[in-house]
Amino acid sequence: MISLMGEGVGLLPDLLETLDVEEKKGVLALLTLVCASDGELVREEMAALEAKMGQALMHPENRREIRQMLRRPPIIEEVIAEMDENSLRLAIRDAVLIAASDGEYHEKELVLIKKIISAAGLENRVIDELTSWVDELWKIQAKGRAIVGVSLPGDERVLSSR
Known about the structure:
The protein is mostly helical. About 65% of the residues lie in helices and about 0% in strands.
């Protein structure tokens, strides 16, 4: 057997999976706000939101509730008021991922993310750190595809960028 990352360490769950249902709903509600913020629901953002609901192991009824928020967005301040700090911070990370999923960060998305950052007691520089992290993540994913000889449009550009 090949040991990865040392003795007895396997793939660790994401924090999203460990939250209770109400905290998961809060994170996902904030993600729907990011998806809907620029007034345009694009396929990439929808796919990223669906993936997050799957990762959170949301019940189909809860998923329907979250999808409804895309048509009738909740009030961000009300969602934030019901969440704990760790869940808000997780939502920040995932909000940047959602915002990046269509290939660009829209100003309205960044305004919403900054509201969450403020509520979580963090500084706005977190956005710069997370956008760099997203760039690294995309490179890692493109490299994995390249290793097995498959690619997505744009992989060559991602792999050649600094």
